[in-house]
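Worked example

This section walks through a single chain of length 317. The input is the sequence exactly as stored; nothing has been trimmed or padded.
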Amino acid sequence: MNRVVGTGCSGREIVYLDAKDKMVGIEQIETNSAGGWGNMLSYMVANPELMELPIIGDARKNIINYEQIAELNPDVVFAADAKQADNIQTKTGIPTVVVYTGPVGTEEQMEQYVDSLKLMGKIMNKEERAEDLIQYINSLEEDLNKRTQGESPALENIYLGGQAYRGSQGLTSTNPFYPPLNMLNVENVASSLDISDTSKAIQIDKEQLLKWDPEVIIIEQSSLESVNNDINRNPEYKNLKAVQNNRVYGVLAYCLYSYNKDVMLANAYYLGTVLYPDQFNDIDPEDKADEIFEKFVGKSVYQELKISQGGYKRLTF
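Given that input, the structure is written out below as tokens.
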């Protein structure tokens, strides 16, 4: 397969699998034009030439340009769900394969993601790369677990806010299954909620957040403006322990145009330095992030993402 197209946010995995040279089209959101997020996506920042490819749809609006795909005539199209795949294959006649680009906050989701990487690798003749990337992910997860298993974090009662989902969100948007915390053997306080749908962010009540009164708040900085507006509208948030004690930390966006697995791992190491300073005293979060980006997307792009998203730092309100 020499010509491929990724719809439904699967272009990211094509780059992860070192098959960017096979891409013949991208989605609007992957560019820097018309409100695109290209300068906030690691794989596009690392490979800006991809932004010049023809536009084959807009994931935010669930729009597929079937005519453009047919004209590009790829050997295969990757799609995020069965309905989308059926529509593309029916309307273009091009083989379309369903892949998984969603969250990996549960063991089942990670297994689904690994299987999807293997499938894409097989189709694009990148099986060796897929196995290498999977082994790298496993090695980092093992390292994070080894550092923290049986250890108590310096601060407990931790809350993730501003979890992006179909755009930026306020302080009460959270992810009970936030992988960077799970990998550190700590939990978002929201994990105590009975959640049946593990595939997306959830909104909690303001009263619930005030009741939890977390010691640490983590904010995905793609939502920082929304969080700031939230706090200005609700001054009682300024009485939260984390805000009072300057224990609010900004991270890169794990969920931005679906789920960025490289950012997920980089965030875990940064939060490790915050929550387990002794166990992570050998880690420079920015250097570790660049190592991870180099492996996933081919270049060290942390500094560029720091400019577009805010980077790893304490936040004050």
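What to look for: The two ends are 51 Å apart (CA to CA).
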